[in-house]
Amino acid sequence: METEVVNSQLIDYxxxxxxxVVAAGFVLTTIYFAQKIGPKHKSVKKFESxxxxxxxxGNARLPFSVxxxxxxxxxxxxxxxxxxxxxxxxxxxxxxxxxxVKMLAFIAxxxxxxxxxxxxxxxxxx
Length: 126
Fold this sequence. Notes:
The protein has 126 residues and is an all-alpha fold. Helices cover 71% and strands 0% of the residues. It has helices at residues 2-37, 66-83, 85-90, 92-120.
């Protein structure tokens, strides 16, 4: 019975491993073909800075709004926490009611934090 559990766990991880191999293979194949097929012309124009179709004018070191960094940090914070939903969703049936209650305990502070930043207006861009 213990070997069945180990085999079941290996099968669960095998899907993640296959997904990683496919993603890495796609990236490496794209880089390889871009190097082999892509143009290799070097010119002064090619090494100039380019920003959204506009020529660079003035100092590139203009200050960013603090709001930008606040939104970026909030995005990273909530994005990392949302990653924990995937394994919970995959094992939802095996976890049963106790897993559901634990996930509600995990989600509650997230929702409180989300409502707090909405109330404070942290996501309003003025």
